[in-house]
Design goal:
alpha/beta; seven-stranded mixed sheet; globular
Length: 270
């Protein structure tokens, strides 16, 4: 599944080339090139597939900016621990400005972390904070691995699970949230992206075998705010459409139906 992270990097590289880019990711192109997806990737077979790719690309751009903003707000509130769950080709340790004393943990399996390390060496990239990689499968005992790497559960943490939960069955999502909650002191923050209702039916039904959409299994609950309240979080939902408009990148089409809760989640531990 980690190869999909290279596809995300390609989207971020393309966004970074825009004059009105919502963020700049100078390492994204190197990740995409090393993964064979730069400067181009195979075009979709038909118009419907092309529209789906554009929709997914836009969602990646909007969620990236949303989580960038959340991380800046967490840092401004005094949080100095960051945990990226399923970090993939995330380069925030290198491209964002971090307050002194920030420790950023990237949790993922060994394969993507090794691939990433080779590209970072090639690019001579230097992290702007203390960056710590934790090679562990999130289906295993990752809290112990994170603690062994130096995470302090007594201090506030900002947790990011970007493009992750949609690949996990519901029971695994619940376990992940329970584990995060057990490691979160008061004042911790969390940013999640959830698959919107119906997205698996729209995108996954005829997805090619091995594609990202073919591996989607989990959509957001009917009441994500209530679900997270049960885990001790005060959460807020935001739609891609709402955030896109706020960032000056409004959707060009009206909603086809009444939109439910959004798939961009910000939360605070009280």
């Amino acid at each position: 599944m980690w190869a999909t992270a290279v596809g995300v990097a390609r989207v971020r590289a393309l966004e970074s080339e825009r004059k009105n880019a919502l963020f700049h990711d100078p390492l994204a192109q190197a990740f995409a090139a090393a993964g064979g997806l730069w400067p181009s990737s195979p075009p979709p077979d038909d118009e419907a597939a092309r529209r789906r790719r554009l929709a997914v690309s836009l969602s990646i751009v909007i969620r990236t900016r949303f989580l960038d903003d959340l991380l800046r707000q967490a840092s401004a509130s005094g949080v100095r621990q960051v945990v990226l769950l399923g970090a993939g080709m995330d380069s925030r340790a290198f491209r964002m400005d971090w307050p002194e004393g920030t420790r950023l943990f990237e949790v993922d399996t060994a394969a993507p972390l090794d691939f990433k390390a080779s590209v970072l060496r090639q690019e001579r990239a230097v992290a702007r904070c203390e960056r710590i990689t934790v090679a562990v499968d999130l289906r295993e005992d990752w809290p112990d691995a994170l603690a062994a790497a130096g995470h302090d559960a007594a201090s506030p943490t900002v947790w990011i699970a970007e493009g992750l939960l949609i690949y996990l069955p519901e029971d695994a999502v619940e376990l992940l949230l329970a584990r995060i909650g057990a490691l979160s002191a008061a004042g911790s923050r969390m940013g999640l992206t959830l698959g919107s209702r119906g997205v698996i039916e729209r995108f996954g039904a005829d997805a090619e075998e091995g594609s990202a959409a073919s591996m989607w299994v989990s959509e957001m609950p009917d009441d994500p705010v209530g679900r997270l309240a049960g885990h001790g979080w005060e959460a807020a939902c935001h739609t891609l459409r709402e955030r896109a408009a706020a960032y000056g990148r409004p959707f060009g089409t009206p909603p086809r139906h009444e939109e439910g809760p959004g798939g961009l989640i910000s939360a605070v531990r009280r």
